[in-house]
Design goal:
141 residues, alpha+beta, 4-stranded antiparallel β-sheet, 20% helix, elongated
Amino acid sequence: MKHFLRHGKIVLLTMVLAVTSLTVAAPATPSAHAAALPSITAYGLQEAVEVQGSGFTPGGTVWVGVFDTNHRLLNSETVTASRNAFVCSPITHICRFIFSGGKIDAYVGTASYYGNVYVLAADDSTSEWSNEPTTYVRIIP
């Protein structure tokens, strides 16, 4: 019986220490894993815009819109952000990331419009909006 009580005290002490360490560590966890806001870069082409970005939900749907200087929608595309890629060792079962997902590469046509344009992207999973870069679209001569 003595052995059982001593063993029970050790188990109880271990549980108390584990719960206490989780309680203390819990508030710090979200800030360490905070995700970056979506960010895009726009490149003006002939009657089109190429948009590259990062910070979106890996594998999620992203809406990309091109607007004229009066903020009227010229055209939009829906793309899928890249997924996380990782490799796992079959012997040790340890996995490591090869690269982080959440990147986009979109091509949005503007028909016969030329001039300055604004570009926006929205992450469908988180409802986060990207920054709003501007670029110049040329017309085909």
